[in-house]
Design a protein that fits this description.
Elements lengths: L1 H18 L4 H10 L1 H6 L3 H16 L5 H32 L4
Helix pairs in contact: 1-4, 1-5, 4-5
């Protein structure tokens, strides 16, 4: 159960950082000043890896480095999958409503 909550939490955090209006000014600033960080903050897969690494490191201090890296890869993959499922559903809803 904790893994599901952590997975959805990671997806929510990444979704807010990448698409949220709260972070829009920060993303614009980083785009101008630090190109590498702006790329990180616009990629769901990249950002979720680092968020997953942080969750694995903070939330599971009994893991070794190998397990924390696997944890980060898991979060990257599941966040990427959830993002594409959400995009497909939004596209289907838009198509059904007559938007193109």
């Amino acid at each position: 159960m904790n893994l599901i909550i952590e997975t959805l939490g990671c997806y929510g955090i990444c979704n807010i950082i990448v698409f949220g209006s709260i972070f829009e000014n920060i993303r614009l600033y980083l785009n101008v000043k630090f190109y590498v960080l702006s790329k990180l903050l616009s990629c769901m897969m990249c950002l979720s890896f680092w968020i997953g690494l942080l969750i694995g490191f903070i939330g599971h201090n009994d893991f070794n480095l190998y397990q924390i890296l696997l944890y980060a890869c898991y979060f990257s993959g599941t966040t990427w999958l959830l993002y594409h499922v959400q995009s497909a559903i939004e596209g289907l809803i838009g198509y059904l409503n007559g938007y193109d």
